Amino acid sequence: MQETNDNKSLCSARLGQKIKDFTFSTYNPETDSFEEHSFSEYSQLRKWVIIYFYPADFTFVCPTELADIGKYYTRLKDMGVEIISISTDSKFTHLAWCKAERLLSGVNFQMASDTTGEIAEFFGVYDHEAGTALRGTFIINPESVLVGSEINFYNVGRNAAELMRKMQAYVYVEKHPHQACPAAWKEGEEVLTPSEDLVGRVGDFLTNKQD
């Protein structure tokens, strides 16, 4: 894994800003092969990317998380979203873990190797003492801009259903930039169009729409 020449001046990921480009090795469970990728190739293809950090292979909460998000992978791909899981394990360890752990049988997304912790460091999830990444989820839009983030400590797993909901909202507002999705919004529900008429009347607007 190495940093590319572009955006070398960036020292950490920030919401609303483009991320630094990295190249990295992966294990691809779908093709059972090792590959090389970079974040920039996804933006060139106009793809959204979910970067999904987890602490380590052959641990306990981690396979449940990858299995959980793996259930949504086909739907996410249909939305133009790619998933890249990342840990500080090698690509060889990723392969061995996928072969051994039954929970990972449905995982078909790229599993990236960040053995130096550089990518995790950039996203603010690298634990220097442990040499592993915290449970960090980062949503990158097709312009390579970081638009969403969530970080959990080691002993609490994430909810892929909520991530799917948020991803649907991000994709929606990208296509409808003058609108916004309210709390707990689900696909097909009412959205907000900010205007002077809506100031102080959001509750009335949503109530009237439900009637």
Explain the layout of strands and helices.
Layout: E1 2-3, E2 22-28, E3 33-38, H1 39-44, E4 48-53, H2 61-70, H3 73-78, E5 81-87, H4 91-100, E6 110-113, H5 118-122, E7 126-127, E8 132-133, E9 135-140, E10 146-152, H6 160-175, H7 202-210
Parallel strand pairs: 4-5, 5-6
Antiparallel strand pairs: 1-2, 2-3, 2-6, 4-9, 7-8, 9-10
The geometry reads as elongated
Number of E-state strands: 10
Structural class by sheet pairing and helices: alpha+beta
Using the CA coordinates, give the radius of gyration: 18 Å
CATH C-level label: Alpha Beta
What is the overall pLDDT average?
94
User: Per CATH, which architecture?
Assistant: 3-Layer(aba) Sandwich
Query: What is the CATH superfamily classification?
Result: Glutaredoxin
What fraction strand?
A: 15-25%
User: What is the CATH T-level topology?
Assistant: Glutaredoxin
Q: What are the segments in which pLDDT stays under 50 over at least 5 consecutive residues?
A: 1-9
Distinct helical segment count? 7
